[in-house]
Amino acid sequence: AADAARRRLERDLHDGAQQRFVTLALALQMARGRVDGGSSELAQMLDRAQTELEEGLAELRELARGIHPTVLTDEGLKAAIGVLTERSAVPVTATVPDQRFDPAIESAAYYVVAETLTNVARYAPGASAVVDIELESDLLRVEVRDDGPGGAAAYPGSGLQGLADRVAAVGGTLAVDSPRHGGTTITAELPCA
To answer: Which spans in the chain are helix H?
Structure first.
């Protein structure tokens, strides 16, 4: 239900506010085109307004993508994980099957990887990570390993606890193996039957 609400909110942002900003940007461009050379102060004001609007629109698009990534919906888990690894602050290698799964399962898998890579960047700077996602019988197994300092734990209110809750909501399990000085492995098993 939460994922459906996120997708609905993303569509509403895209179809509503984002489209209004695009229309406003076009109106500013047309107004700027009508300013003659004699009104440089007005031209500068319109240029500043255009720049501010473009930056606001970029922020809105990023917000909408952060709510539910469009690439996940449109192209699937492999493409979405590819975007995550490209943007990651730590080096990541990933193996992801090139097939589609139930949208709730893809979403859960995506957020396991996204949250885990964020944690690696935050708590283990300088570490690297490996993402392995594979279909084993009727389970999608998502494993993210890093070579950081370890010591991660799921506690109430933590991001890992949030992941455990998200995974449980689709009938899956989440395991955290993070011995001190031994790196961290997060494993989610998501039912695909």
So the answer is: 2-13, 19-34, 40-67, 70-75, 77-87, 103-123, 159-169
